[in-house]
Amino acid sequence: MTDADTPVPPCTPELRQALRDLAQELGTPLPPGPDDGHARWELYRAALRSETARPLLPAAVRAEPDGALASGVIGEALERLPRPERDTWVAALPPAVRAFSERRARELATLEDLRAGTPVQVPDVSDWSDWLQLRAATEVRHPEVLSALAASGRTKRIRRTARESLG
């Protein structure tokens, strides 16, 4: 049995309340099948786009029985959140699915520092995920970073993009 085949427990009272709160804040009806992960995902996505509903998402994530769905919500939220808030949102995830979001939050901080022009030494880009390598190759103007990516990027696309960004 794979994770995709693992049944997700039905909605708990805490999740039902979190979903009601989100729907009310969004001015939309509660999804007709709150036990349906697809319906919950659509509600979560709408809340991510709403400045007023977004703060209610951590409560829903804490109550969300589907770890992959909860992780997806946090993953989508991280780039929209100010850096100081990210750890609180990641902490809403169950420990079993927290590692990816913890890493993405660290990578976003690295990318933001590089975009801001923070001085850097030649980084060891081999520890960076493909996501961070490609984003840095596309969005960063540090010659040291781009040279490291052009020489040691994990994929041909990353190396080519870094070379092109170097000019």
Q: Note the quaternary state here.
A: single chain
> Main beta sheet, described?
none
Strand content: under 5%
Shape: elongated
Radius of gyration from the alpha-carbon trace, in angstroms: 19 Å
Number of strands: 0
Summarize the helix and strand pattern as letters: HHHHHHHHH
How would you portray this structure in words?
This protein is mainly α and 167 residues long. It has helices spanning 13-26, 37-48, 57-63, 67-78, 83-91, 99-115, 130-139, 143-152, 156-166. It is elongated. 27% of the residues are buried.
Based on the model shown, name its key terms.
167 residues; mainly alpha; elongated; disordered N terminus
Task: Please outline the helices and strands.
Layout: H1 13-26, H2 37-48, H3 57-63, H4 67-78, H5 83-91, H6 99-115, H7 130-139, H8 143-152, H9 156-166
State the gist of this model.
This protein is an all-alpha fold. The chain contains nine helices and no strands.
